[in-house]
Amino acid sequence: MANREKQDEIPASTGIRNYINGQYINPIQDNWLDNYCPATGEVYGKIPNSSKADVENAHLAAKSAFPSWSQTTFEERSRILIKISELLEDNLQRLAEAESKDNGKPVSLAKEVDIPRAASNFRFFGNAITQFASESHESVGQDAINFTLRQPIGVVGCISPWNLPLYLFTWKIAPAIAAGNCVVAKPSEVTPMTAYLLGEICTAAGLPKGVLNIVHGLGTTTGQAIIEHPGIKAISFTGGTATGAQIAKVAAPLFKKLSLELGGKNPNIIFADCDYDDMLTTTVRSSFSNQGQICLCGSRIFVEASIYDKFKTDFVAKVKALKVGHPSEASTNIGALVSKQHFKKVMDYIEIAKAEHGKILCGGNKVVVKGYENGYYLEPTVIEVVSNDCRINQEEIFGPVVTIMPFESEVEVLEMANKVKYGLSATLWTNDLKRTMRMANQLQVGIVWINTWMMRDLRTPFGGVKASGIGREGGFEALRFFTEAKNVCIKY
Ligand code: NDP
């Protein structure tokens, strides 16, 4: 946490409500949904089940804030974004506990990763906007100069999933408002709490009312209303591939700018010449962090045949040692899955694996945590498969379940890695530089990690190919997405 002389007090919250025009308000139709705690399986609060009318209200607030916000100097926007970042840091413990309660992830993970990253998103884009330049070209011999204006789009929509709730919500909101847009945003209905708290923080940081509006509710109603709204000109969406396809269908005839960050089924390719211990430790992390509910998790592990048996023994031993437990316990490595519905989906895949003759090397069972018997806990699971073509190697499970299989050659593993509909990321473990370059060039993904996993530098582009999405966010890519380029040509 940043060490500042005076910490701004954020008032305690009462219940989740929409944040529109700088105020917390109830949904117009007074409809509410239950909010579950995955660690206990119990309802612990209500959230607005917002309608089209609530989205329209949010849109109107954003629309009326836009003329003034888009004319605010970039220094002022930068100052406010950095202030939001500081307030997120000042509220680290409270936000981490809220995230954990809503999502089931260990508090320690939320404290180390999710909340600091949300703060970094605001700090990064607060700084990036001061460096965001546009191009100019002198047309030599024609007495003309071209320069490009980068103008904010207007009202934009940001829709995020439940796995990294505040982290991904702010990944979109921060560049959108830094670039001078006003936002209508919807977090996942499954994990609304930290998005709700963000409203208070933005107000305390001095963000003018209407610049950020947060509506809670179901994807198919509230989310759909954002996508369909003709006044919301661009959509940044992170979520499942099927939802992304549905959004693209609705947005296309409205000519909306679209950024889609979708699912993944990422290969983790291990060659015998890698730094073994480093690979083993990181592979446990890349398989099971956040209960395996990260789009970037390396859920298909391919191991060179010469070290396959050793890897299998060592990996399974490490996975068996992971502690599944209540998210607030410091010793917990694996918390609860996000919801009853998601838990069932993951369990169904374990049954599919058995039917496909996958060999369960460890895990595969529900864990009953004493005192929290109704929580959605699952053993980390490793399944040995005989073919890359089986469903559990092709479909996104998005839980603490990985597959392993051996390979004989670079050519073979490259073909298997690419033979999947997704193309988000790949991890490669090798010390052979030539192979690194050959494979980095040929892997059909948006992100390649060599001898590491999920090392993120916010200046770099982020996104996938194939069914993993369209467009890139991160760094100036995000600022480009959230602005329209207009070229001006002057003859002098
Ligand atoms: P969903 O696609 O179900 O939902 C994502 C968001 O979209 C939620 O806020 C959801 O609301 C909303 N939504 C659902 N239907 C619609 C609709 N028709 N119109 C508008 N909005 C809608 O994904 P999950 O929340 O289940 O998240 C998991 C998925 O996200 C995985 O596939 C994962 O790989 C992917 N993901 C991708 C990342 C990337 O960067 N590529 C990063 C993280 C996750 P509600 O929850 O209320 O239904």
Task: Please sum up the structure shown.
This protein has 15 helices and 22 strands.
Which radius of gyration do the C-alpha atoms yield?
23 Å
**Main structural class:** alpha/beta
Largest sheet: spatial strand order: 14-15-16-13-12-18-19
Biggest beta-sheet profile: 7 strands, mixed
**How much of the sequence is in beta strands?**
15-25%
Architecture (CATH level 2) name of the largest domain: 3-Layer(aba) Sandwich
Identify the CATH class of the largest domain: Alpha Beta
Assigned CATH superfamily of the largest domain: Aldehyde Dehydrogenase, Chain A, domain 1
Small-molecule binders here are:
NADPH dihydro-nicotinamide-adenine-dinucleotide phosphate
Provide a descriptive summary of the structure in words:
This protein has 492 residues and is of the alpha/beta class. It has helices at residues 52-71, 74-90, 92-103, 107-131, 165-178, 193-204, 219-228, 241-251, 276-288, 305-320, 340-355, 391-394, 410-418, 433-442, 475-481; strands spanning 18-20, 23-25, 32-37, 42-48, 136-139, 144-152, 155-159, 182-186, 212-214, 234-238, 257-261, 267-270, 300-304, 359-362, 381-384, 401-407, 422-423, 425-429, 447-450, 465-466, 469-470, 483-491. The chain contains 15 helices and 22 strands. It has a seven-stranded mixed β-sheet, sandwiched between helices. The chain has a six-stranded mixed β-sheet with strand order 9-8-7-10-11-21, with helices on both faces. β3 (32-37) and β4 (42-48) form a beta hairpin. The longest helix has 25 residues, at 107-131. The chain starts with 17 loop residues before the first strand and ends with a strand. Residues 1-13 have low confidence and may be disordered. NADPH dihydro-nicotinamide-adenine-dinucleotide phosphate binds at residues 159-163, 168, 186, 188-190, 218-220, 223-224, 227, 238-240, 243, 246-247, 261-264, 295, 396, 398, 424, 464, 468-469.
